[in-house]
Amino acid sequence: MKKFEALPCIIILAFWVVSMSACMSQHHKGDDLKETAIPQKNVRIEELLKEADSFFQQQQYNNPEGKNAYELYRKVLELEPANEYARKKISDILKILLTIYKGYLKQYEKLRDNEIQGQDVRNEIILILTKMIDTLKSAKKICEDSKDSDFKKRVQELGELIDKYEAYKTVINRN
Fold first, then answer.
1. Of 17, 92, 147, 175, whose Cβ has the fewest other Cβ atoms within 10 Å?
2. Alpha-helical segments (H) within 80-121
């Protein structure tokens, strides 16, 4: 009789061992998925960086929409927020945009001098103001999107410049 009393315990124990083995097997399958997901994520990041670098080389820093370096570097940071390379490239794009703005500012100042001397450069001034405003708006967007505190500080400064040049442009358009 004692042999039969132990039998249910052995059956339950065997069932438990089989169940645990199945659970462990599923758990290890989850680890396998994680292990394959990490390399796939790294491959995706490498692909994004390669494409972003290509756009960067073509000077497609933030235009056209959907096909530019900035958007792809941002996607990399969504996948890997600590990616220093993508952060540096975004910083480089911001520096380039501010350099472009400074070039437009010099052109604007020359045109203003020409206007003071009596030349009709109104249309050229409007065009260069538009380029300055667009460039500053692009730089401001990068600063707004960034988690970098130095970039965040520039948002107000860029906004004030944009407002100033938009006001100039409005005045010139009225005349």
1. 175
2. 84-116
